[in-house]
Amino acid sequence: xxxxxxxxxxxxxxxxxxxxxxxxxxxxxxxxxxxxxxxxxxxxxxxxxxxxxxxxxxxxxxxxxxxxxxxxxxxxxxxxxxxxxxxxxxxxxxxxxxxxxxxxxxxxxxxxxxxxxxxxxxxxxxxxxxxxxxxxxxxxxxxxxxxxxxxxxxxxxxxxxxxxxxxxxxxxxxxxxxxxxxxxxxxxxxxxxxxxxxxxxxxxxxxxxxxxxxxxxxxxxxxxxxxxxxxxxxxxxxxxxxxxxxxxxxxxxxxxxxxxxxxxxxxxxxxxxxxxxxxxxxxxxxxxxxxxxxxxxxxxxxxxxxxxxxxxxxxxxxxxxxxxxxxxxxxxxxxxxxxxxxxxxxxxxxxxxxxxxxxxxxxxxxxxxxxxxxxxxxxxxxxxxxxxxxxxxxxxxxxxxxxxxxxxxxxxxxxxxxxxxxxxxxxx
Length: 428
Fold this sequence. Notes:
Strands 1, 2, 3, 4, 19, 20, 21, 22 and 23 form a nine-stranded mixed sheet that branches. The chain is globular. The chain has one helix at 308-311, and strands at residues 17-28, 31-39, 50-56, 63-69, 77-85, 91-99, 102-113, 121-128, 136-147, 150-159, 163-171, 178-187, 203-212, 215-224, 227-239, 242-245, 249-250, 252-253, 257-265, 269-280, 284-288, 292-297, 300-305, 313-317, 330-335, 341-345, 351-358, 361-366, 369-374, 380-385, 388-392, 397-401, 410-414, 418-424. The chain has one helix and 34 strands. By secondary structure, the protein is an all-beta fold.
């Protein structure tokens, strides 16, 4: 019998220490690789981040390996970035090198894989620095993407006047980078725009420029010193090195998702994987979401869970008062009607998570708090694990941190909707 104990099973959390941003999910040989910002030995964030390497056979269950980049050699901290593989099969990391004198103005540095297994990396040169003369107060998080025959690097930032910015550079060889100015920008004062756009903060962290169903999508983590908010995006085109997009939309809700990291990996598809804030145990803090696979409907981006979860359904769970004989990872497909409710209960007969439809919103309640996100109709997907619940509607996502000591044993449907739930096989 598999028990979850006090750790998530399909949401990676470090054995001990702090993790936040996931970075560079990719297929390498027969396995998936990913990296994470990591503070070993401490369950609280500090500027002296390292990069931890993770491996997975299926892109869902991740295993902790060793650190591959650490402070030193001119870096007081190794912060977020991205990974690319060139035309010769060589892997390159582009990361934010920070100085303790001003951690908010980083430099972009490159590291190269020193072995075929990507287990050892050598730091290289600083290849990009903050643009001069633009009164920048935040500069970090390079994302490199193939664009035509060359490469485009996008770096997030913010100006003193409250304008969030995505700067850009281009290169033909991943070594020499030419500054091409601002890819996109938006001032934080635009809170009630006429086009219906959502607020996008005063700083853009972790900008990701990805192709979804033939269109460019600019994804940003919305930040204002020093509050992390949510993920927003715009669908558009790049012409003359300028991104022109549709109205900005919000992709994530709730207190947990942040710092979405884009990937395009064989066997998984194209998507985002997030840092899960506020998920914690005794000796560890932070977790990663499962991979979200993206598709586009016009200028809206929609998320689904990886198909691996459907493939791993091993046992159906009754939602008419039935009870599981053990804690488990549960995959729920819910087709609600007006005022319909799903509850996730615990061993003491109480409910820990309550999901309820109210008009055009889905409301989630837990531990005395309540969050909402749009519900445009249609099916809702819920994935519950020790310490976290992820909820996807057709075009929005929400994650809630839960007490890791609580065993979710009793999913229950109230009302007139329909729902089916399966226990996920987590062996192997």
